[in-house]
């Protein structure tokens, strides 16, 4: 089979490797498409110093191409369209045994799915996975929308940490792909949503997606704006989806007493934030984080996309054939794009 490998800074190549065979309890997936996550983008630009070559990719969807022993071919027939939770968990660590497998100490991102070239393996034509990592999706769902199951699952894990109640005010900081998904999910949760984003085009798109208010933080203090529409309280839930550590303290200042602040994005570079312990003591505000998708959130993401409750089509910024890998990555790292999808044949 062929894979798309990152071989140097800003360079990809198509390489030929051995196609995996499904083992006992596994399903062979013919990958139809893989979205280029920020993690893969950082490998491409060498901000993430992964040894090269590497075959990344974990936001995938495709169709069943075969099954291993112990898997019913009637239940998992060839050609059935599926989304795949490619990230694995050990099932035996402290976190897994408490139902928080997204925090697994042995999480599989970066481990090899095939022997010749290391990496998560989603940027290839085939992958073999345990049957429990396969979710059926509608046959007519475009693959470039189905690949959003994994990033949407990450956002749903974050939304769960925010504990949004009907009628709450929610603030989302950052109008990138993850910020937009937070806006959509918060609206679906029954909240009034404010997005803080300096780019006017992204603010416009957020409003099209149902965002109630948008503010330019370069012109308007988001915390002051939120207090102006909430009788001085602030938002019950605040989600920081930016990688800018200086925004973290601002996020806390946007929260209402007893509110929840979720640090969704990883920070590059990571800078400490100053928080008054006395303020936390007096307000009972909760500051927490959210990382990776749980099995529960992945299942919910597949349901939301399959049933048309979340339309991810508006967030596809480009679709490229895998032979155009370098061009796809260059498009993905541009600041004006959301998700770029690589398709395989």
Question: How would you explain this protein's 3D organization?
Answer:
- This protein is an alpha/beta fold.
- The protein is 26% helix and 26% strand.
- The chain has ten helices and 15 strands.
- The model has no long low-confidence stretch (mean pLDDT 95).
Topology:
Layout (H helix, E strand, L loop, with lengths): L1 E7 L2 E6 L9 E10 L2 H8 L13 E9 L13 E5 L40 E5 L3 E3 L6 H4 L2 H14 L6 E5 L3 H12 L3 E5 L3 H9 L4 E3 L6 H8 L5 E6 L5 H8 L1 E9 L13 H7 L2 E4 L5 H12 L9 E6 L3 H8 L6 E5 L2
Parallel strand pairs: 8-9, 8-11, 9-10, 11-12, 12-13, 14-15
Antiparallel strand pairs: 1-2, 3-4, 3-6, 3-15, 4-5, 5-7
Helix pairs in contact: 3-4, 3-9
Number of separate strands: 15
Structural class: alpha/beta
The poorly predicted ranges are: none
| Spatial separation of the terminal alpha carbons | 10 Å
Largest sheet geometry:
7 strands, mixed
Proportion in β-strands = 25-35%
Portion in helices: 25-40%
The rounded Rg comes to 20 Å
């Amino acid at each position: 089979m062929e894979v798309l490998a990152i071989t140097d800074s800003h360079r990809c190549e198509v390489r030929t490797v051995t196609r995996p065979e499904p083992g006992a309890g596994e399903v062979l997936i013919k990958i139809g498409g893989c979205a280029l996550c920020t993690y893969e983008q950082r490998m491409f630009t060498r901000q993430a110093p992964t040894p090269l070559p590497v075959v990344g990719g974990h936001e995938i969807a495709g169709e069943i191409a075969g099954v291993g022993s112990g898997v019913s071919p009637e239940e998992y027939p060839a050609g059935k369209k599926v989304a795949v939770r490619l990230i694995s968990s050990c099932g035996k660590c402290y976190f897994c045994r408490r139902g928080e497998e997204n925090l697994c100490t042995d999480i599989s991102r970066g481990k090899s799915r095939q022997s010749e070239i290391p990496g998560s393996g989603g940027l290839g034509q085939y992958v073999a996975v345990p049957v429990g990592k396969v979710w059926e999706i509608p046959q007519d769902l475009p693959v470039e929308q189905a690949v959003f199951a994994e990033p949407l699952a990450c956002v749903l894990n974050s939304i769960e940490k925010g504990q949004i109640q009907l009628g709450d005010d929610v603030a989302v900081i950052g109008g990138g792909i993850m910020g937009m998904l937070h806006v959509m999910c918060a609206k679906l949760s029954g909240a009034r949503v404010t997005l803080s984003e300096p780019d006017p085009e992204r603010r416009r798109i957020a409003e099209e997606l149902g965002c109630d208010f948008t503010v330019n933080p370069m012109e308007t203090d988001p915390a002051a704006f939120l207090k102006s529409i909430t009788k001085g309280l602030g938002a019950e839930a605040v989600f920081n989806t930016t990688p800018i550590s200086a925004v973290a303290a601002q996020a806390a200042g946007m929260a209402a007493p007893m509110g929840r602040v979720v640090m969704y994005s990883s920070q590059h570079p990571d800078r400490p934030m100053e928080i008054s312990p006395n303020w936390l003591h007096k307000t009972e505000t909760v500051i927490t984080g959210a990382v990776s998708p749980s099995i529960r959130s992945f299942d919910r993401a597949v349901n939301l996309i399959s049933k048309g409750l979340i339309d991810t089509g508006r967030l596809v910024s480009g679709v490229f054939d895998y032979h155009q890998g370098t061009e796809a990555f260059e498009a993905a790292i541009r600041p004006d794009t959301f998700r770029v999808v690589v398709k395989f044949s």
